[in-house]
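Session log. Operator J.P. requested a structure for one protein chain; no other inputs attached. Running the standard single-chain path with token output.
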Amino acid sequence: MNDLRSDAEKAEYLQNMLIAVSTGGAGEDRDYKSLRQYFNENPTTCEFLPKFVRTNRDLSQFWSFIKYEYAKYQERRDFIYSEFSLLLDFLEGKNKKPADPTISEGLKSFDAEGVHSVWAKALDRRSIDPEGAITASRTLLESVCKHILDSKRIEYDKQKIELPELYRITAKELNISPSQHTEEIFKQILGGVTSVVIGLGSLRNRLGDAHGQGKAPVKPAPRHAQLAVNLAGATTLFLIETWESRNDKI
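Structure written below.
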């Protein structure tokens, strides 16, 4: 297993091992446990890891599961291939969008506990859990705004403040509020960012999973989650870079 050069190769090795075990072959239990722990502890990959891997701690438990779940070898192969498709697609870049690496790197450089993990969660959940991705997008913006205000010792109501007001205070402190600029093009762009934040708050309240919904709930599609995550990521990166540039001048 030491010659595996990428996470995609590790995932494929794990998949093939489980296919071998499920069709009369053998597998190395030590390798299974090691790879299961590796992917399960990584916040970027744990949500793509098949449930049956997360819930079976060794190959003996996996065998007890698969032999009763599917009687025929081909059924077992098809099941394992299908369950691993999300993880492998993600690791091979099929579920990533062009802006993802840039935004992720920006958040990694931001010294705020949990901020990058929230962004990773939003990225992971776009396709498989749109409601959760929308909620994570708002949480991402809230976390960054609160960190910036806390770093500047700006007081705000931590329990009741809504995202638009939280962003308004943050934007004012960073001198990116539309009213703080006279150039019309900057006022339009910064006003657009404010509208995005307001829209994300409304989208999350209407479509996210944080509030109970009525008898006819509106279910977001992956494209709605994609829009929310990309807008939140771009806005968050803008806030972080502005905050860093202000600190550099001090």
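Operator note: The first helix runs from residue 7 to 22.
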